[in-house]
Amino acid sequence: MNLIRATLLGLVAGALCAAVWAAISYFLHFEIGWIAWGIGFIVGIATLAGAGGRGGPMVAGLAVTLSVLSIAGGKYADAHFAVNKYMQENGMTAEAGDELLCSYIADDVVAEKINAGDAVTWPEGVDPTQVSQPSDYPPDVWAEASARWEAMSPDEQSDYRDTIESQRQTQLDIVAADVRAQAFKDSFSLFDLLWFGLAVLTAFKIGMTSPEAGGAPDEPHAPAA
User: Fold this and answer.
1) pLDDT digits 0-9 by tens, 173-219
2) Which of 59, 89, 160, 198 could form a disulfide with 37 if both were Cys (CB 3.0 to 4.6 A apart)?
3) ∠83-12-203 over CA atoms, to 5°?
4) Is the per-residue pLDDT at 36 higher than 90?
């Protein structure tokens, strides 16, 4: 029994299955739950083959573990690509134009005025915590921010842009990670648990197969409707 080869073959099979599942979900925009069952079968067969066809508790446990990891990996990959696509389609990038960079400077101007005890009169209907456009800021604040931006040398502007874009990318990464984690969690429905359980059971059964038992069991069939 070669557990290293069994692990490698199981990992390769699981990775391929997870990639196919994620691709189907991403490009066809729906998830086929019973594919999880197929992953359990394929990973089980690959793991058993890597073990030289000699199953047992260790092979079965390995097949189950790799199946679980493959299913989870496929679901997480689906969530990852879906979140990335949403962010791209909605312009949620770290790239910052001159106007956006001026808004960061304008925020600094506002903070300086408040610290100095000066009044800041916001345009009517503007929420100071949700501002980014020139019209969102008091005219004098935006004028000061624009003047500071124009006073910077090209190198200073480039450095400031890099700093802001780095900060924005860090913030986007944090938000994206939280959204992916929530999407991954929400992807498990009660019906998914049925296929998940069948995948685990199938992988375990195949992993327990011994030569005396006549080889691996037949491919599972979906229950009749």
Assistant:
1) 998 889 888 888 877 777 777 888 889 999 999 999 876 544 445 45
2) 198
3) 95
4) no
> For 32-41, 102-111, 134-143, which range has the lowest pLDDT when averaged over its residues?
32-41
> 160: which 2 tokens?
């400031």
Q: For the whole model, what pTM was predicted?
A: 0.65
How many H helices and E strands in the chain? 7, 0
Which pair of tokens denotes residue 82? Answer: 């879906």
Q: Residue range 17-39: average pLDDT?
A: 81
What is the three-class DSSP state of 13?
A: helix
**CB of 215 within 8 A of CB of 48?**
no
Alpha helices for 29-153 (secondary structure H): 35-50, 57-89, 98-115, 139-151
- Residues contacting residue 204 through CB under 8 Å, at least 6 positions apart: 44, 60, 61, 63, 64
- Specify the residue for token string 């599972």: 220
CA atoms of 62 and 14, how far apart (whole Å): 12
Instruction: Supply the pLDDT for residue 154.
Output: 94
Tokens of 216: 């691996």
User: How far is 3 from 58, CA to CA, in rounded Å?
Assistant: 8
Q: What is the pLDDT of residues 48-75, one digit of tens each?
A: 999 998 889 999 999 999 999 998 888 8
Give the burial string for 99-138 (b: 16+ CB within 10 Å, else e). Answer: eebbbbbbbebbeebeeeeeeeeeeeeeeeeebeebebbb
Distance (Å, rounded) from C-alpha 42 to C-alpha 60?
A: 13
